[in-house]
Amino acid sequence: MDQTIPAHAYRPDLVSEDFAIPSDTAGISLHLRNKRAAAQKAFSAERTILLVHGATYSSASLFDVPLGGRSFMDHLAAQGFDVFALDVRGYGGSTKPAEMDAPPQNSAPLVRTDVAVRDLASAVDHILRRRGIPRLNLVAMSWGGSVAGAYTAANNDKVVRLALVAPLWLLNSPAPIDSGGALGGYRKVPVLDFRERWLAAAPEAARASLIPEGWFERWAEASLASDPQGNAEHPRVMRAVNGPIQDIRDYWGAGKALYDPNDIRVPVLLVHAEWDRDVTMATTQDLFTSLTRAPYRRWVEIGEGTHMVLLEKNRMQAFDAISQFLAEGGPHGTPSH
């Protein structure tokens, strides 16, 4: 059974709001979701978080599906953080590029990483203006880790701390997300078929218990709901842009970095799970040792988890590692003693 925890058992009343904010491109708006405690009236840089999703699934799908009675956004908001989640253009509630209305072969891969960095910049600037704060914390997963890493390297003054879950970095093996062949503008993702690839990363004996009962189905429904048009045309299928996969081919899979980690000068947390096939332990170690100018850095390795650890039985270990990292220290990222 899905062990559901009543909302009132672990959190104060939360306020949830959705916004459409302008991007730097005419006709493209970006979806931002905000969750915070209803009683929260004062806002600070240290307690403000912006979440960034990966290459396939939207922020709502990864960070705000209430599995076991709570989502990652719920968890952070209940601890007093003012939490925002961004959908880059082409994802979730943000504008889909017009090319996604045509067959994928009619366009080059859409939404490359540099475009996502610009969308992240638009979101950061909007939140800083809205809350009257000079900087915020970034938390990002997978490809989003590349986006947030590149943004931070160029905008250290706007970031308090950077927490990355399985961030995409230089790959030492083929990327499972890339099935090969010519890349069109976008791909069609049969969401329900993903369970097999997800579980395949774990040892056979561990697969039955990796995702608690009912969680995959709830997550899949939320993922499909993020693309009603794609789902309507092809039931149980959603569309995902191919720009991130083209960048894997041109950069991460070819041994070329999209940004220099030495340019990151804020505290950094890396969270990784032992069975992650998409971003291996060796890749994570390479990034960790490259963060030479961070005031301090930390790597948390979670046993019995895959690339999707935020949605698995051991997700609370990741949640707690991230919230602890973001809650510690002084106003400018200096560790407190």
Q: What does this protein structure show overall?
A:
InterPro entries: AB_hydrolase_1, AB_hydrolase_fold, AB_hydrolase_sf. One of its GO terms (cellular component) is membrane. GO terms for molecular function: hydrolase activity. Keywords: Hydrolase. It holds the Pfam family Abhydrolase_1. With 337 residues, the chain is of the alpha/beta class. The chain has a single domain, classed as 3-Layer(aba) Sandwich (Rossmann fold), CATH 3.40.50.1820. 30% of the residues lie in helices and 19% in strands. It is built from eleven helices and ten strands. It has an eight-stranded mixed beta sheet, with helices on both faces. The chain has a two-stranded antiparallel ribbon with strand order 7-8. A hairpin with a 6-residue loop joins strand 1 and strand 2 (29-37). Helix 3 (113-131) packs across helix 4. Mean pLDDT is 93; it is low at 1-10 and 331-337.
Order of helices and strands: EEEHHEHEHEEHHHHEHEHEH
Annotation, overall tally of beta strands: 10
> If you compute it from the alpha carbons, what radius of gyration comes out, rounded to the nearest whole angstrom?
19 Å
Roughly how much helix do the residues carry, as a percent range? 25-40%
What structural category do the secondary elements indicate?
A: alpha/beta
CATH topology: Rossmann fold
Shape: globular
Tell me the domain tally: 1
CATH architectural label: 3-Layer(aba) Sandwich
Strand order of the largest sheet: 1-2-4-3-5-6-9-10
Estimate the mean pLDDT confidence: 93
β content, as a range? Answer: 15-25%
Q: What is the distance, rounded to the nearest whole angstrom, between the alpha carbons of the first and last residues?
A: 43 Å
CATH superfamily: Alpha/Beta hydrolase fold, catalytic domain
Q: What is the top-level CATH class? A: Alpha Beta
Low-confidence stretches are 1-10, 331-337
